[in-house]
Amino acid sequence: MTATLAALRKRRRVSQLELSLRTGVSQRHLSCIETGRSRAGRETLFALLDALGATLEERNQALLAAGYAPAHAERALDAPEMAPVRAALEQLLHAHGATPALVIDGDYNLVMANVGLARLLTLLGLPGEAMLSQPMNLLRAVFSPGGLRGLCVNEAELCGEMWARASREAEHLPRLRALLDELRPTLQPWAPVETGNLPVLSFRLRAADGRTLSFFSALTSFGTPLDITLASLKVEHLFPADDETRRALAEAGAEPNG
């Protein structure tokens, strides 16, 4: 328990005094818990973790370190008991017809995608179906040298916000933090973009035929999830932002084998 709670508090940049004031746990008792001189009760530990905004994975780690059973399951998405989750994701992917949509996990790995995304990739001159049939990490696909960022008209705006969003999430996700560290040396710095942390992002892409395709994306996540896998998932829809983009997607869907 000792390092886990202290490390979590420091990662959140919260002082012992501030955490004490948030929870009603005395600073002296908190210090004893962090140094191992005292053991936090389960309810006290939950209160401390709530105040720190701990992720479900961090909660499990803290509970195990303190000698308690983990509180949250981590089921594989293809597990039989996750069938209702898969059905919900399928419904979300197809809720807007063939509007491009994808599901990513907390490390930005592509989990699911619809036919609309394959059509969009084809419009960009890429082998859409082949790409989506292979394991793909969205951050690698965008930020690696020669990646998808080169097809973006407003590259600085899109990449700056996408990187900033991933960086905020990586504060609590070690694997994501490691991925960003791996990609960072190949990147140019982008100026921060003020979006108010809204889950909507506008961007423009260069199609293979020279047209500019305009989109805005919207993210959906599961509210109050109790499973670690479920908590990490996000559904992203890429909505056409103008008539030309809508026509291009419709034409791609009308083509044979499109």
Automatic annotation (TrEMBL):
Q: Which Pfam families match?
A: HTH_3, MLTR_LBD
Q: Which residues are in the HTH cro/C1-type domain?
A: 5-59
Tell me which Gene3D superfamilies the record gives: 3.30.450.180, lambda repressor-like DNA-binding domains
Residues in the signal sequence: none
**Entries under PANTHER family matching the protein:** BLL4672 PROTEIN-RELATED, BLL5781 PROTEIN
Give the protein name, as stated in the record.
Transcriptional regulator with XRE-family HTH domain
Protein's organism: Pelomonas aquatica
Organism classification: Bacteria, Pseudomonadati, Pseudomonadota, Betaproteobacteria, Burkholderiales
